Amino acid sequence: MRDLFDFADELGPTKIIHVYEPSAGLKGILVVDNVARGPSIGGLRMAPDVSCEECVRLARAMTLKNAAADLPHGGGKSVIFGDPKMPKREKEAKIRAMASALRNVDEYIFGPDMGTDEVCMAWVRDEIGRSVGLPCEVGGIPLDEIGATAWGVLHSTEVALEYLDFELEGARVAVQGFGAVGKHAARFLTDRGAVLVGAADSCGAVSDPKGIDVAALIELKGAGKSVVDYPRGTKLDREAIIDVDCDIWIPAARPDVIDEGNVNRLKTKLVVQGANIPITAGAEKILSERGILSVPDFIANAGGVICAANEYRGASRSETFGSIEEKIRQNTRAVLEAVREDGKLPREAAFDLAVSRLKKCMGYRRWSLFSSAPGFL
């Protein structure tokens, strides 16, 4: 386990708070990474195996994502230890307790993430009045319901294909994590002519080179079933989605699903990162060496937080979709131009883009006066 100070640098984090509420059985963590651009927006994640290290890394990803998207928000993240499929009453108690404990941390705005949704954000709003990704009944734009993150993944994919030698029409797609992001990404891409040939969830995977009926698969998931209940195709272990031969591979689940140990199993031409930090830095370097283009997470999957920021300022749904399309296409193209012209790795180019915007804002903050002082840490 790395010391958390190994993750600290000139950008942050500015605050790490551990939350424990015995009466609700709550154990959680909040990381506020950087607020130079404004109050941080970041999702509340629930899973039994989350960690402080993961939360720190995800908060930094949000800082970079918000800066790259040119949003007036910093980066943060919160996690609750627990099974997101626990009884609703128990889940509500934990989330309300988490929100109440963080009531006065006004530099953090809750949003939905893996294991939470717009209903959870309604509970947070009821407690402290500070959340996004709300149900439409209370004035929100339910980003998971409408597929805001996946809408950005679609447009990032379309721009990335301008730098490759094949078209979206007829392209074979595999999705790792057929949940809120993955199912909508599959829907949007197949609506444009792509063919879904593989999909995975926590229970397993299914593949069919002839194509999978996306609508039928979404209906199965809506009924509480798994992709392995799909009546056709080949049933696989969930990790075997890595081996499915495709043109576009979309990770849309947990962090670090691709690392140096399994990256060479990928049989694809393009990776568009729908999840946060799904590929290790070493694996991304290997992908580049193999000639596989990989669009970084905080460029490709920023649609959700763009939606959240728009909701926070009262924008309409149609305005929000237009904003996602414009920002994602612009940033994907900027990153890939830097890759082509300067020979940078995609993540390096994306990082430079985000940090240049972030540091301009940091220069206006009073703490910047002391950043060059001798001995400043």
Would you write up a description of this structure?
- With about 375 residues, the chain is α/β, with parallel strands linked by helices.
- It has two domains: about 5-65 and about 75-145, Leucine Dehydrogenase, chain A, domain 1 (Rossmann fold), CATH 3.40.50; about 150-305 and about 330-350, Rossmann fold (3-Layer(aba) Sandwich), CATH 3.40.50.
- The protein is built from twelve helices and twelve strands.
- It has helices at about 50-70, 90-100, 120-130, 145, 150-160, 180-190, 215-220, 280-290, 295-300, 305-310, 315-340, 345-360; strands at about 15-20, 25-35, 40-45, 75-80, 110, 170-175, 195-200, 205, 235, 250, 270, 295.
- A seven-stranded mixed beta sheet has the order 9-8-7-6-10-11-12. A five-stranded mixed beta sheet has the order 1-2-4-3-5.
- A hairpin with a 2-residue loop joins strand 7 and strand 8.
- Helix 5 (about 150-160) packs parallel to helix 11 (about 315-340) and helix 11 (about 315-340) crosses helix 12.
- The protein is globular, with a radius of gyration of 20 Å.
- The two termini are about 25 Å apart.
- Mean pLDDT is about 95; it is low at about 370-375.
